[in-house]
Specification:
One of its GO terms (cellular component) is cytoplasm. This protein is of the alpha/beta class. It has 16 helices and 12 strands. β2 (about 145-150), α6 (about 155-165) and β3 (about 170-175) form a beta-alpha-beta unit. α4 (about 105-115) runs parallel beside α11 and α14 (about 365-375) packs across α16 (about 430-445). The longest helix has 21 residues, at about 305-325.
Length: about 450
């Protein structure tokens, strides 16, 4: 046990032996009660990550080994029965099948729990699978969700179309900044979830996480926050939220090469989602591949450094673009409606986010701007997603928010010409700014610049 503690391992108790499934009655961990480790919360996410469990490789490598096994063996027949009965679990290195638990994926979950300051976390095959699984675990048929009217298009479609049709789960959409409207929309005893994004996609509206969490808890609802846009910048669980979701495909990955998601929250919730009989993750099966989990585990340690540079450049570009007369939306600017709110909630030294928006008012102007930025000056790429080291640009109304109808977009504040930019950090800041200026000069015809 002393060696276990010295290595900072989260799982308590003796490890399984190499020849037999050795365990004794005093040390048996009842998996039904708690199948995942808990993490101590740190005020700074980088400090929490540094304190998280570090796995070593099978032969002493500084990087952990990849457990690329779909299924796992036991040494004694009785052990398998006990694992399926929930008496033995991954806390003691007893694994059944990688759709259930995999050691490499569990390690990534520990890092995500440390990052967000939650008791536990489990990583999934995509961000949407994380979102849908949590909502299905928390809501039964006839259940009700109160959600922000400004959400990623896929989430909006899930709540607007799929859930009512397939699950008899309904949603009331509200202006998440109107706390009184949020309070009035929650029906005590029926509303199971209050759902919003820490920074909305694509309008960059910042949610008052502490106030919304208080309202949700007073009304008996679970507060679920999608923090995909603001890892390191905001820590919703430390601000009162119950569950934090991520599309790891974005900033956390940073490479635009994998699809992955994460559910971070109370151990009781994450354990219930892995239950053999009732668990949404276990039964729906959005399993993360162990090789993907290994790659992501190697990227998280430098997430803080990457986020600082994403945010630094976004801030600088926002200031300069505003001076040129462009209509810029960025929470770091003092004229942003939630600038002071974000300043009060944000983790120090990480900035105000790596995304900014430029409202060109019409789709035609938005498309011309992106065309010149990509095809003439190589400032960035016309592509959806975010968090890449190159700048990615898209016209949200006709791309990532296209699932919403015209009225829904208007209510959400999504202009037809809203260009969402995920600011990259490749090259020097001045080099990339020069590319942006050249694109603006090339297309300037009296209609490009839109005064604030």
């Amino acid at each position: 046990m002393a060696e276990t503690q010295s290595r900072g391992l989260v799982f308590a108790g003796k490890k399984r032996g190499t020849g037999t499934d050795d365990f004794d009655g005093d040390d048996i961990f009842v998996a039904k009660k708690s199948m995942l480790p808990t993490m101590a919360s740190e005020s700074d996410p980088a400090a929490a990550l540094a304190n998280a469990r570090h796995e070593f490789g099978e032969h002493g490598g500084v990087n952990m080994s990849i457990e690329a096994s779909a299924t796992f063996t036991v040494m004694e027949p009785e052990t398998m029965r006990r694992m399926f009965a929930g008496e033995l679990g991954p806390d003691r290195d007893f694994f059944i099948y990688s759709r259930h638990f995999n050691p490499t994926v569990l390690n990534l979950g520990r890092l995500m729990a440390a990052l967000e300051g939650t008791e536990a976390a489990y990583c999934t095959a995509s961000g949407m699978s994380a979102i849908s699984s949590v909502l299905l675990q928390l809501c039964s048929s006839g259940g009700h969700v109160v959600a922000s009217r400004t959400l990623y298009g896929g989430t909006h479609a899930l709540l607007t179309h799929f859930f009512p049709r397939a699950c008899n789960i309904t949603t009331t959409f509200v202006d998440i900044g109107d706390l009184e409207a949020v309070k009035n929309a929650i029906v005590e005893g029926k509303t199971k979830v209050l759902y919003f994004e820490s920074m909305s996609n694509p309008t960059l509206t910042v949610a008052n996480i502490p106030a919304l969490s208080r309202i949700g808890h007073e009304k008996g609802t679970t507060v679920v926050v999608d923090n995909t846009f603001a890892p390191m910048v905001l820590s919703p669980a430390r601000l009162g939220a119950d569950v934090v979701l991520h599309s790891i495909s974005k900033f956390i990955s940073g490479g635009a090469d994998v699809i992955a998601g994460a559910v971070c929250g109370p151990a009781s919730l994450v354990n219930s989602m892995m239950d053999l009989h009732q668990g949404a993750l276990m039964l729906l099966g959005p399993t993360m591949n162990a090789k993907v989990a290994f790659e992501l585990s190697e990227r998280i340690p430098h997430l803080g450094l990457r986020m600082k540079e994403h945010c630094r450049r976004a801030m600088e570009y926002a200031i300069r673009m505003k001076k040129l007369g462009l209509k810029v939306i960025y929470p770091g600017l003092e004229d942003h409606p939630q600038h002071e709110l974000l300043k009060s909630m944000a983790n120090k030294e990480y900035g105000y986010g790596g995304l900014l928006c430029v409202d060109m008012e019409t789709e035609e102007r938005a498309n011309r701007l992106m065309h010149h930025l990509q095809n003439y000056t190589q400032f960035g790429f016309m592509a959806v997603s975010l968090g890449y080291y190159e700048t990615l640009m898209s016209c949200s109304g006709s791309s990532t928010s296209s699932e919403m109808n015209a009225e829904e977009k208007e209510l959400a504040g999504i202009s037809p010409g809203l260009v969402r930019m995920s600011i990259g950090y490749i090259g020097t800041l001045e080099q990339k700014w020069s590319q942006l200026e050249k694109a603006l000069s090339r297309m300037q015809d009296g209609t490009l610049l839109i005064k604030n």
